[in-house]
Amino acid sequence: MHFVQVKGILSGKNGMNLYRGCTHGCIYCDSRSECYRFAHDFEDIEIKENAIDLLEDALSRKRNKCMIGTGSMTDPYMPLEEKIGMTRKAMETVYRRGFGFTLITKSPRVLRDLDLLKALHERAKCVVQMTLTTYDDALCKILEPNVAVTSERFAALKTLRDAGIPTVVWLTPILPFINDTAENIEGILRYCIEAKVIGVICFGMGVTLRDGNREYFYKNLDNFFPGLKEKYIRCYGNSYSLMSAHNACLMNLFRTRCKENGIETNTDKIFSYLSAFEDKQTGAQLMLF
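The structure assignment produced for this chain is given below.
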């Protein structure tokens, strides 16, 4: 890891990445793509050491309260968060300033900050987003080797449910010829139903590959699924979007199960919910389902 000074922390949509790079080792990781212009090894985590000061300043300048998000590019609960604590410091800043908060993670380490998540949700709104890709834990250890397996993430979702923290699941990516099966989708959705997630985000049963992450993905296919890289090349060539041949039936299964159990699948509605600030101190609530 190494420390850097940055000029800004919040994006135009009020998202932030406190770290840059990741140690989860997910074989499909889009953040490895060349378009993101990493000047260091992806596993050499860049820590934005002035991020909290920048966040404090940015929030102090905002005229209206809003939701603040993190985790879109780098998981905020990598192992080094236990030592550095940047994510918790950011959450404390957001809480003190009276803003709402949402994050995306694959790690049950988020439960370390359950006290703060609850405090944020009591004052405004706090939503935890969890990525689930593979129901089978053994396969999960291959696809996402350095992070908690899916059953452990499911246990975290249940703890969040019991604590009253709303959750959203990202069902992505679904890798052709690997986890694009009805059994996998059914298993993940059973977890979502039991955990009472508010919504599931899924853009289709497939994966995207760009220069940079494609090479890393294919290297891992050679290591764990001999011969599969050649099948990908035959079927998809150099395409960016690689949709499963079973996309239509799996999406129908996905939408049907979610509708039966009151889980939102409309991505526009889910994103509206995630971005809608709620001031529980004054009773004002915006754009809820």
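Interim note for the steering committee: Residues 285-289 have pLDDT under 50 and may be disordered. Residues 182-195 form the longest helix (14 residues).
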